[in-house]
Design goal:
alpha/beta, about 325 residues, 13 helices, globular, four-stranded antiparallel beta sheet, five-stranded parallel beta sheet
């Protein structure tokens, strides 16, 4: 009786998800997507639901060759899954250690992310697909929120991932894993578990495996409460970003000091203005200190992507590739 009820509930949810994906894809003219598929529950569920919604899929699988035989097992599973569901598949092998040796200071996690999205973007541009699709869920968004909270992020970081930014679409971002797992079970869709996710080698895994379960044991409804908080922050951040956009416009290369001082959050405005230069975390504070000091000399900051100049009561950006606001 319990299993029968679970089946009925999962069928209803499955129909609802398919309806949402179908409507969203039609409304946004999405017909062809690249699907990043690891073989885990999230990406397998996303791929299955997209197929049911009638979208054309090209699956992409990254083999980073970091887990020995398990990496080959994952690739084989994805190959079999795609063959069974008649999904075309492309697989790419990466040398992550070689990438890290060429990019000093890059972590293993960031190296894998960079390699993954470089390849995804290349395929998207070459084959003219509408979106790159990932299997991120509401659980991933909560983890991202907590990571950014502990790093001291502002509203943009705490607002979490966007479900669709025009390049990457995350169809299951509003759903928790425990909501759609019964759908996979009742439809007899298998998936694999990445053993590295069970180890606390990364901060995200530590939050997922230890911290979040502990919080859940003390705070009933933790998931839904955090979902609501993230949604509220996302709405509030839209207001903030809209106010900043009205001042900075599109690719603005100069900003006068009076505008900065009069803005309700001067540091945030400076931070958004100099974002294209990939500044250091201390740069906005240094800029504000120089503005407050009100000294007549020119002040410059050599940053990753160019130079920031404070001159004649105005900030100027000079990009490395030669664009200038002076």
């Amino acid at each position: 009786m319990i299993l029968d009820k679970m089946g009925k509930n999962s069928d209803a949810l499955h129909k609802n998800i398919i309806r949402e994906l179908s409507l969203y894809s039609k409304r946004n003219n999405i017909t062809k997507v690249l699907m990043a598929i690891s073989g885990g529950a999230d990406s397998v569920a996303t791929a299955s639901f997209l197929l049911d919604a009638g979208l054309e899929i090209l699956a992409l699988h990254c083999n980073f060759n970091l887990r020995g035989e398990e990496s080959h097992r994952d690739q084989k599973f994805v190959e079999n899954f795609c063959s069974e569901h008649k999904i075309p598949l492309e697989v790419k092998h990466f040398n992550v250690n070689e990438y890290i040796s060429r990019h000093k200071g890059c972590s293993l996690e960031m190296a894998c992310r960079n390699l993954r999205y470089q390849w995804f973007n290349k395929i998207k541009n070459e084959k003219n697909f509408d979106r790159i699709v990932t299997g991120h869920t509401a659980d991933d968004n909560i983890e991202t929120f907590l990571l950014n909270l502990l790093r001291g992020s502002g509203s943009r970081g705490l607002a979490g991932m966007k479900s669709d930014n025009g390049l990457i679409w995350r169809p299951l971002l509003e759903y928790h894993r425990n909501e759609f797992l019964p759908i996979l079970e009742t439809r007899h869709i298998n998936f694999i578990v990445d053993s590295s996710n069970l180890k606390n080698d990364y901060r995200r895994n530590f939050l997922r495996n230890d911290v979040i379960p502990l919080i859940k044991s003390q705070f009933k409804g933790f998931d839904k409460a955090l979902d609501k908080t993230i949604a509220n922050l996302r709405d509030e951040n839209k207001i903030i970003e809209s106010s900043i956009a009205q001042i900075l416009g599109d690719k603005k290369k100069h900003l006068d000091i009076e505008t900065i001082i009069k803005f309700p959050a001067p540091k945030l405005l400076v931070k958004r203005f100099i974002d294209p230069l990939s500044p250091f975390s201390k740069t906005p504070d240094e800029v504000l200190d120089s503005i407050i000091a009100n000294k007549p000399h020119i002040r410059t900051w050599k940053l990753r992507n160019g130079t920031l100049i404070l001159r004649n009561k105005c900030l100027f950006i000079e990009m490395i590739h030669g664009e200038s606001g002076s």
